[in-house]
Amino acid sequence: MLLSQIFAVLGVASVTTGSLGCASRSVGEGDTLSDADGSSSESGPSTSESESSGDASNTSDDGSKWDIAPFPDDPDGRVIDCDPPLTLISDPKFVQPPECMVEFQQSASICFYPPDGTSCETHPYDNDCLLDAYGCGFIDVGNEVVCGPFTLDDGACCYVVVGDCAVGRPFMVDGVARLAAVERGRGWALAAQRIPSLIPSLTPSLISSLISSMVGLDAADRAALAQLWSRAGQAEHASVASFARFSLQLAALGAPARLLAASGQAASDELRHALICFELASAYAGAALQPGALDVRASLPALDPVAIAVSVASEGCVAETVSAALLTHARDRCQVPAVREQLTRMIAEERRHVVLAWEALAWMLDRGDARMRAAVANVFARPERHVGIGATSSLPHDPSRVAAHGYLAANERRELASAALTELVRPCAAVLCSSPAGLSAA
């Protein structure tokens, strides 16, 4: 599929750039990205039976697997590299006690049967192993073991681990997506109101409409929505830093003005998105919420062109493409006009960010060497490793009522993310990394 067709699916303009190609090299079990999708370069992506069913484990026509990493609450028997290996229970009959909840942080139940000769009380695994069992999108390690062990009737051991979850364009430092904490207050948002272009269009009438739409929500639903939107705000806030760093990287590489301008605009967009998310979170919470300070130490490593290209491929081309698709589905399910209006605006801007990522990567590859093309090909060989599916709430809530306010269940997002990889990321990567004629024709 041509890039112009891919972006037509996203509803945005196509990339125009010179000819290039990723290295034709092994990217899995004998496949190469240069020929993985050659039969469909002029037509839309084929959809297999497993893909159309929404299964999170998709098999393409060439036999390659595109599996979304299991979400923490549904680990599907993941095996963690501990000593002895820790096998998580896919469906633990465990309800996290209220005292285990940590405000504004994602939590996961880490449940397993103790190895022979051990018991829950003997703590067969240390905390580092339990933290490694946590996973959410880009983040594959938890922050803290807050509760446990709890021994279930069948002898299983359960712990509660809290951590973060990022989606879209994360602010990655040493493999961890950094987020600011959530604080009480409105000083951050009030300061931004001095800049007219950043004021969210959440007018008093829209806020009033939003509040009136909460009539069908109980206190638990509102608390969950406040938590979800505040977590989304954390991710959008971190994206501001991510694009600021990207602008520095582009400048260091001698990028053209159009890419620098687009990156600067994207940072401004993300700030507006963060404002919108925190305004929504505050409305649902009935209290003013804002982000705290973001740790940016050691966030600008050596400006290696290969490392920059890899980050653009993983964080931009994969993560942002999937994020834009998820946001679109959330908007389509949303039944609250005030929220739907904000999501529509955010989607239009996020799609521009998707175009920027693919266009910037094309520009880099056009000037890069074989080492860069091989590194980028490795990213696209297993794009599921770079997908974030966004925040979930550890608080009890009604999924259908929450979906009506703009948030989809984690399992639904996993299925949609898998489809986005198959229908958007994979064919776009195949064009980018195939014959020079494929991209120049886009």
From TrEMBL:
Region (Disordered): 24-77
Domain of life, source organism: Bacteria
Residue ranges, compositional bias (Low complexity): 35-60
Name used for this protein in its record: Uncharacterized protein
